[in-house]
Amino acid sequence: MKILITGISGFVGSHFIEFLLENHPACEIHGTIRRRSDLKNIQHLLSRITLHECDMTDSHSLETIFRNDKFDRCFHLAGQSHVPTSWIRPIETMNVNANGTMNLLESVRHQNKNCRVLVCGSSEEYGLVEENEVPITEENPLRPLSPYAASKVAADYIGYVYFKSYGLHVIRTRAFNHEGFRRPEDFVLGKITKQAVEIGMGKREVFELGNMDAKRDITDVRDIVSAYWLTLEKGTPGDVYNICSGKTYSIRELLELVAKTAKVPSNVKQDPRFLRPADVPLLLGDSSKMAKVTGWKRRFEMNDTIQDMLSYWRAELKGQLAEIVS
Q1: Which of 69, 171, 281, 295 could cross-link 235 (Cys pair, CB 3.0–4.6 Å)?
Q2: Distance of alpha carbon 193 from alpha carbon 188, whole angstroms
Q3: Nearest-CA neighbor of 170 among 264, 95, 241?
Q4: Is 173 exposed, middle or buried (0-12, 13-18, 19+ CB in 10 A)?
Q5: Average of pLDDT values for 168-189?
Q6: pTM
Q7: Mean pLDDT across 221-243
Q8: Is the dihedral of CA 9, 123, 194, 90 positive or negative?
Q9: How far apart are CA 215 and CA 225, in angstroms?
Q10: Strands 248-250 vs 215-220: parallel, antiparallel or unpaired
């Protein structure tokens, strides 16, 4: 089976490669990267995959990839995935996430119509959720609260259009927050775990964070990628599936958990730089539909995720210190 992963060099892409190599070693793995993509996350995997240079906004490069290689599966991970950045570069975010998805599906339609495609969406699409609407099912109204969320709603519905209008095998997912080692510090648990290690090393005195009251449903990235695989294999074309843990943590609760695990004080200072113009107060999902269809079960608990992320940052920061000393 020949598989294409768009945005393969990112946080999720690197874990997806490892999942495939461990569980489906016969697969031939291809991935798209941009010209200046940082390959750090997948450096140890380069000899086992094939890379294609491609910008999702360039329809010609996508057409060429699908013309030259006939893929059986495509997992569409590429995009601008950082909510705060979407407030700074909203047009770019919409172009990459929405138009990029359309370019991908146009290429599949013209060059590789039998390829199954997973359009990976986000729980941010739900946006403003009322208290009586949790846990959130796939039928909940979409009320996006950021340019990023709006761009993912557009990509989500574009996937449905290409299923309905052209008969493409497109399945959509809405993954709630996912974390794990290699997660950049731009994302909340990456930020908290890195700062915890820095406090332990004497490099900073307190945590610096934004909104402490937002509540998020968090799943380990390794469970997310296994869900992506199962959903594309067993899900119904045209349908949409939540992927989540069904349990929420406030940012304050995450901070306390990380500080306790790292054995550092949990003193925190709110930094206005990390506050958003509009923030989603609560995201708690219901993944029973996807689990029933695919048989998916989570393997990792929050303590596993936090331990792995702390170990990752300790190794990273020690490496940085070694470079400075040398």
Answers
A1: 171
A2: 9
A3: 241
A4: buried
A5: 94
A6: 0.94
A7: 98
A8: positive
A9: 23
A10: antiparallel
* CA atoms of 268 and 255, how far apart (whole Å): 9
The fold for domain 1-326 equals Rossmann fold (3.40.50)
* Gap between the Cα atoms of 120 and 106, Å rounded: 17
Cα end-to-end distance, the chain, whole Å? 46
Contact 106, 256 (CB under 8 A): no
Q: What is the C-alpha to C-alpha distance for residues 128 and 133, in angstroms, rounded to an integer?
A: 10
Sign of torsion over alpha carbons 35, 99, 13, 232 = negative
Q: How confident is the model at residue 175 (pLDDT cuts 50, 70, 90)?
A: very high
Residue with tokens 């997912």: 173
Which are the contacts of 202, defined by CB distance < 8 A and separation ≥ 6?
Answer: none
Quote the strand ranges of 151-296, DSSP E: 170-175, 177-179, 207-209, 215-220, 240-243, 248-250, 268-270
